[in-house]
Each structure stands twice: as C-alpha cells, then as structure tokens.
Amino acid sequence: MAALGWLTPRRRSATARSVLAGEASAEAARKSSQELEQLGEATQPDEGTPETEFPVVGDDRAAAFFDLDNTVMQGAAIFHFGRGLYKRKFFQRRELVKFGWQQAWFRIAGVEDPEHMQDARDSALSIVKGHRVAELMSIGEEIYDEYMAERIWPGTRALAQAHLDAGQKVWLVTAAPVETATIIARRLGLTGALGTVAESVGGVYTGKLVGEPLHGPAKAEAVRALASAEGLDLGRCAAYSDSHNDIPMLSLVGHPYAINPDTKLRKHARERDWRLRDYRTGRKAAKVGIPAAAGVGALAGGTAAAVALHRRRR
Fold first, then answer.
1. Catalytic residue among 46, 59, 60, 69
2. pTM for the model
3. Cα gap 170→149, rounded to integer Å
4. Would the CA dihedral through 155, 159, 162, 168 be positive or negative?
C-alpha cells in the first residue's frame, strides 16, 4: 500500500495507533473489495445450503466479520506464509526453525502468544523489505495453494457462506498482512479483508507498518471504521473469533460467536450467553442457533485435520 500522509508519529499513544491501524486496514479492505467486484471474481453460493433464521436474508445493513487464524484456518497465516518464503529462499534455515517453533506453539496451545506473534511480524517485515508488493502478491497466491487451502475449517467456511447466501458482505479481520488476507478472502469468495497494513513507497515495501499490527483493539477500530464507511448497523452484524484478544471486536456486534475458543474466550462467552462452536473436537454448540451447514462442516473439519496429521507423520 502506498505511503500515507497521515502516518502516526512514534510517540502517539497506543489507542491512537490502534485507531490508525484500523482506519488504514479499513481503507485497504474497501479498495480491494471494490477491485474484486469490478473483476467479478466472487464465487457463487453453494447449492443446497440450508435456509436459516439467522443470518437474516436481504438485510443489507448487516455483515459478518471473521478472524482468520484458528477460526477460519488451522494455524496462523503468517507462519504458513513464512514457510512458503523459505522455500523460495527469502531467508535462512535458522529463521525457518523459529517460524516452525512459533507455529507449533500456536497449534498446540491454541492461543496467540503476543511475543511470538510480534517476533513473527518483525521477521516478516524484515524479510519483505525492498521487495515489490506485486511480487509478494503473486507468491502469496502460490503459498495459499501449497500450505493454506487444505487448512480451511469447513464448518467456519459454511458459516461464512450462510451470510453470503443471505446477501450479506463477509470480511476477514486479521493481524496477517492485508495482502495475504485479501488473497485468502478472494479464494474463499468473501467480500474482502481487513489486515495489517505494511508501508510501501512506489510499490516497494519499506519494512515499516502503518500504525500497528491489526490485533486486539485495532481490530475493533477497523471494524468500526469499515462499518461506518459501508453504512452498516453493528447491532445487526456478526463476528467470529477463537481468541480472547478479539473480545473488543466481538463486543461491537449484536451477534458474537466464539469459534474454537481459547479458555478465556470460552469463559467470557458462556458468561454472556454468546454462541459457541468448536471444530477441533466436534463438541456441540453451547447455544442453539448456529446454521445447520456448520454441523456438517465440523465433521469434515475433523477429517481434514486427521488427514493432514497423517501426511505429516508420513
């Protein structure tokens, strides 16, 4: 993304940096969404998706916001992206080992370690510095096919499709680079993506961020900014996440969902009677109301995970 004239000063408060990151991400998301609409690349709805009372069909002031890592996709997108860059000799083996350890921790613990995530982002920024945005976008398409496509949770994908079938827009909201998030959103037929915006000048990455990573409060600010620009009523919108870090985003909307929740989010969701769905174990939702298509997806998600594990062991 081109350098913006309103980049934040270094001493700006954390809250202000979150707002800046959110606004920058919303701007990038709207731009990419408009480009996708012009190209007509959105996928067609699957036939036979069951009709449900929620989401409400035809409510154009409602939309859905999905966290990416461990909500839509098993593992963290930035780690899969790093693996693909290593294959293309963007960095050395010791850095791959670091990426691998962080990914293993994320998969085993099921939570986002702030220090690991920050290290991963810093590494990614240093790796892409000096490279052209177009080059990384092209590589990102290949990496999606190699490492990400088979890691999409079918159950969560069905939830997103239910919103699309109802005529609503669906956005990814993630700390992953907005370019990577946009590729994933397009491949899934979603409207677009809100992600961390890396500064670029003349189409070349500078190694700096616009604001801060789209994480925690910054995600909420991004959703708020996008909703304002799109004329959405947040009380009629839905949000989905696995992490307690996304409670600010989930609390913004009228229909919050905890998907594959970590311990803190599960507790928070139960206290507030939020809907729950865990595709890692096949446990039933704690509250009735999840579209039926997601139930089928849960079984498929477990099967996909077993197949992936078998492949790794071989």
1. 69
2. 0.70
3. 18
4. negative
> In sequence order, which residues have a C-beta less than 8 Å from that of residue 24 and are 6 or more positions away?
1, 4, 197, 210, 211
Nearest to 114 by CA among 218, 269, 256: 218
Those residues with Cβ within 8 angstroms of residue 195's Cβ, 6 or more apart along the chain or in another chain: 25, 28, 29, 172, 173, 174, 175, 176, 177, 178, 179, 180, 181, 182, 214
Q: Is 119 a catalytic residue?
A: no
Indicate if the alpha-carbon torsion angle 128, 134, 135, 141 is positive or negative: positive
262 is catalytic: no
**DSSP symbols for 97-143:** HHHHHHHHHHHHH-S--HHHHHHHHHHHHHHHTTSBHHHHHHHHHHH
Predicted pLDDT at 21: 65
pLDDT, one tens digit per residue, over 46-85 is 444 343 468 999 899 999 999 999 999 998 898 888 888 8
> Which one of 60, 67, 145, 233 is the catalytic residue?
67
- Find the helix or strand (DSSP H, E) in which 149 lies: none
